[in-house]
Description:
The complex is a heterotrimer of chains A (252), B (391) and C (205).
Chain A: E1 5-13, E2 16-21, E3 24-30, H1 32-41, E4 47-51, H2 63-72, E5 77-80, H3 86-95, E6 99-102, H4 110-120, E7 125-133, E8 139-143, E9 148-153, H5 154-164, E10 168-173, H6 185-192, E11 199-202, H7 208-218, E12 222-225, H8 227-230
Helix pairs in contact in A: 1-2
Chain B: H1 3-7, H2 35-47, H3 52-68, E1 76-79, H4 84-95, E2 100-106, H5 112-125, E3 128-133, H6 136-148, H7 156-172, E4 177-179, H8 184-187, H9 199-209, H10 222-231, E5 235-237, H11 247-258, H12 271-284, H13 290-299, H14 305-312, H15 322-329, H16 334-342, H17 355-360, H18 362-370, H19 376-382
Parallel strand pairs in B: 1-2, 1-4, 2-3, 4-5
Chain C: E1 2-5, H1 12-21, E2 26-29, H2 32-35, E3 41-43, H3 49-57, H4 61-71, E4 76-79, H5 81-85, E5 89-90, E6 103-107, E7 120-125, E8 127-128, E9 145-150, E10 152-156, E11 162-167, E12 171-178, E13 181-184, H6 192-204
Parallel strand pairs in C: 1-2, 1-3, 3-4, 4-13, 5-6
Antiparallel strand pairs in C: 6-10, 7-9, 8-11, 11-12, 12-13
Amino acid sequence: MLRTRIIPCLLLKNESLVKTVKFKEYNYIGDPVNTVRIFNELEVDELMFLDIFASKENRDINFKIIREIANECFMPLGYGGNIKSLDDAKRIFEIGFEKVIINSNSFNNLKLIEKISKYFGSQSIIGSVDIKKSFWGGQKIYSHHGRIKQKDNAVTWAKKLEDSGVGELLITSIDREGSWSGYDIDLIESINKVVQVPIIANGGCGSVQHIEEVVKKANVSACAVGSLVVYQKKGMGVLVNFPCRKDKLLDK
Amino acid sequence: MSSKENLNTNLKVCTKCIYDERVASIIFDENGVCNYCHQISELQQKYGTGEEKGEQKFLEIVKEIKKAGKGKKYDCIVGVSGGTDSSYMLYLSKKWGLRPLAVHYDNTWNSAIATENIRKVLDALDVDLFTHVVDNKESDDIFKSFFYADVAEIEAATDLALAEVMYRAAWKYKVKYVLEGHSFITEGITPIGRNYFDGKYIQSIHKKFGKIPMNSYPLMTFSKFLFWSMFAKIKKIRPFWYIDYNKEEAKAFLEKEYAWKYYGGHHLENRMTAFFHGIYAPQKFKSDFRNNTLSALARNGKLSREEAWKEYNTPPKVEKDLLSYFKKRLELSDEEYERVMKEKPKSWYAYPTYKKRFELLRPLFKILAETNLVPMSFYLKYCFPVDNKKK
Amino acid sequence: MITIVDYGMGNLGSVKNMFKFIGVKSTIESDPDKIKSASKILLPGVGSFDTAMEKINKNNLKEVLDEKALKERVPVLGICLGMQLLTKSSDEGSLDGLGWIPAKTISFKDRVSKKYRVPHMGWNVVNKSNESLLTQGFDEFDETRFYFVHSYFVQVEDEKNSILKTDYGINFDSAIQKDNIYGAQFHPEKSHKFGMKLFKNFAKI
């Protein structure tokens, strides 16, 4: 049976790993490569790395760290953070990553996604969207790590990304991030209704029950986790961990 | 009992343990027994370790801890590393009816075994965890400074940081007691003059060789130390000084109950510690802290002196790729690493420390030690002048 | 020494990395002359069927590979697209495959119900269909799983050649073998302990 993938989503800020709440409040988690080593030993399904300030600061991709990470890992890896060209993607794949995650740079350049998808196949790209509820209740998209509001609403944009050739969609609820209160199931469902590509839910996971819930109700293919795998429990200290497979059945 | 015959060496070796003449400040009595063995006997007497006297004293302390913790979320702090002593201490604290908060200082070099051990034990015992993670770049900068300083105490920054973080956690949650897993029976007392560190030592070395300012690193300055011990009045208790502690049984228990894993050797749950014990100390300083634990085992009759001496003289096992990880992380080329390793070792006297201050304030620290506001071993090690200047 | 064939497509670094981790010597070669002296061959592959076959048909590489696999009969392992290249043809393209194992590569689309999204991506379980040196020791795992990512699957003509099967809307051959030639549809280099076991087995053949 194809298992639901549980994917630790790790945030890079310069050369350290951090965790945010609602995209703010940066708390140190540790050294990126050492943390990845631990996840590797815990045999996680897959890992995603997001360099959260790369687009905002228009910085170059830190290929050095990515290479070190790839050398430590024997599971699929995804990287996101200011990917601007087909060459960037090429280099990332050569280093040993399987997927590139594109967010901010898709807004003025859907062609980039088309190019990468055509050359490497749709399974190599994840289209990433960050959403915050506006004052009036609508779901608004924000790029550049929560700073720039975009015109499209989440559902329309998701469709556009799918049409451009992404193989998966990473849907992140900014409001729920770091809250331990569960995924935004309504948001995920609204997008799932209109797209065929697999969805990775992100933002708010506080327990394995939340994962079970979003899989059952919104039929997602994968769940990204943040706080759950880097803290011992809500409000307590940093402790890298991965929900034990034995007692939780996550098969579809 | 001739030490020379048993161990096949020309060195003078204690007849009770395996500390030899190379150990700093060692003195042998007319029976060839060293002053460290005597010190431990004296401590054993004083604390009544493993006897009725010790147990009684300890039960009193537990009562006090419970009383002081009434109405608060936690009544004691237990520092954890994923290792045997701290993991077992957590189990015992729950057994004694205490409500511990586990505290961990993450220097970002942890191995998966350590984090998994911490998780398993805390989950099973339902204990909360407080962690302080230092910025990995700062952490590496401090380690690199110590490496360039040619001194042995590359682990000092971690040890002192844990002590500071435990105090901070105690302060945050208004807890008055910190439980430490140190046992002079199973570990011995690190000889005076060897492995010295304090906040000023770390600061001076970092000032000279460091490149990144200390922001997230929790430095314990002298005034902080006094604040915690005299103003906040946070007490340090070492249960294994009072009650019996069998490390082998503890290990077996943890493995059985919590699927806890032994990582091999003393403190090898953190790669910097592994580097220190496996490569740095033996190769650059021709010294090996394994003789602490091995002496303790010999002293207690758990190992024969021959076996202990033999193991001490066998090079320690080192994880494959450990050295390349160390070099990569601290951005040292092979040449640079070799160059620094070949430099003449320096001892802690070469850098400014608080040592003189501790000696001057001996009477004060005596009182603090008697009331458990500072560990007695701190008083014995830090507040007396060291006479063996030859290192 | 395992020779990893570099024909311009595939995650060579990760494969070499895993071999290094398990202590097996490997080398990446693109020059057909160097491949001539290989004692064991690994054929990686990520991308499309025709693009891969075009690259292999160039430069004498196909001739060398045919010689090694069919005449000299050195052990060969094709992974992911590499396994599909071992078959006669694929729905994905119009060129012939290497044809070393009688099998076809077929599209998932229209063969499985809509609820099975394509590509088949993620960790899935493999079950032994026939014994093989490649899958020795899999019984020490409660369950053996690997990471898959593919839109086309392989179906052997002779069940004898199937060594592992996986279920994804249809029970397809996730690993195949004919004499010295092996294929694995999944990515061992991305399947941590499971992949390491398989690579170790291949190294021992």
